[in-house]
Design goal:
With 417 residues, this protein is an alpha/beta fold. The chain is built from 14 helices and ten strands. Helix 3 links the parallel strand 2 (67-71) and strand 3.
Amino acid sequence: MLKIDFKDFYDFDKNKYEENVLEIHDKVETLKDQTDQFLGWMEYTTKSNNEIAKAIQIGIEFQKYETLVVVGIGGSFLGTKSFYEIFKDRLSKPKTKLIFLGNNISGHYLKSILKKLENQDFAVNIISKSGGTLEPAIAFRLVKNLLYKKYGIEAKDRIIVTTDSSKGNLRKMAIDEGYQILTIPENIGGRYSLFTTVSLLPLSAAGIDAYEIIEGFIAAKKLFDKRSLDNPAYKYAIARRIAYQKDKSIEIFTAYDPSFSDYLEWLKQLFGESEGKEGKGIYPMSVINTRDLHSLGQLIQEGKKDHFETIIWAEENNEIVFEQLDIDFDGLNDLAGIDIDVINKKAMEGTRIAHKNGDIKNILIEIENITPFSLAYLSYFFMKACTMSCYLLKINPFNQPGVEEYKKEIKKLLDNL
Ligand code: PA5
């Protein structure tokens, strides 16, 4: 289901890390059920979880609306957006369109989305674990206002609030105003909330099979929760540790399909916010090829050698070919009749060889197809690998003390307005 290939990476002896990795594994297994440990994401998601079932059911009911506005930022929207962008044009029957709001404070962005919504039949899912984040709070005020203007009292049924199970201003407001509430468990942080109400409601509204996502998560646990150095998530974490020790301070996540762009954003948040602390961490960046071969390709190939690459590849068969021309003006007649996906794969392989020749180390992660199941499988792999990577660096993966700094400074300025 997932293959990981280290042939263009450093030769490394994973056994050197055995003691460390297994000790961390045991610690995680012991702590995962404790409410203050933020490891809840490992066990929370099951097919019989009532809160998840409720989220999926509401999502399916909301398919009656043309658009669902997902208001949230960071972990409260990136997982959803990453799956949505991958599947929205792959679904045989797409349902509700998702629009994402509350992930910036751009007046232009807000104004243009609100304008579009005037002519759409829409509902809103506001998602904030803390219930006090500036960007979604601003967007929610604006979109709620429009919703009430358009639908009057009926607007109330078009609002779903997804927030912490016991605290926060958003929760209080939802109770006061009588909105339906879905909960995010206390011991699951934003960027680890992919397999919770946070994304399963909007993805269900969009027609993406949430139960297939859950199946993928359950299958992934069988392999990536294994107490073994052959666990691919642990092998990848060890490889990242080795790259870091060799002064590779940048990891480039690479995909060869633009629909993966937001998935790479999700990965950047997962690794960046989890690992970048105490003066440590690998800087995650992303490229979509072959597009970025024509912009960043030069730097990656011949610039400062401070990076390594993690390529995500999935087999596809879109059955798209071009025909031979009488006059072979562009010299492409030899490729006529060959599937574009095959050509794309050769581009990936050729780039890998070029990078190898330029001493740019790479790791290839392959999934066999692009389905909600396989993407969930891949995502749990990364979540487990990220956790192990952080603990190998002696970093707490689940906090984000650094984000308080800019919040404080922004607040000071806003208080003076
Ligand atoms: O991973 C995290 O915890 C953060 O990125 C949060 O998801 C993000 O800051 C949004 O927070 P909230 O859901 O509380 O509005």
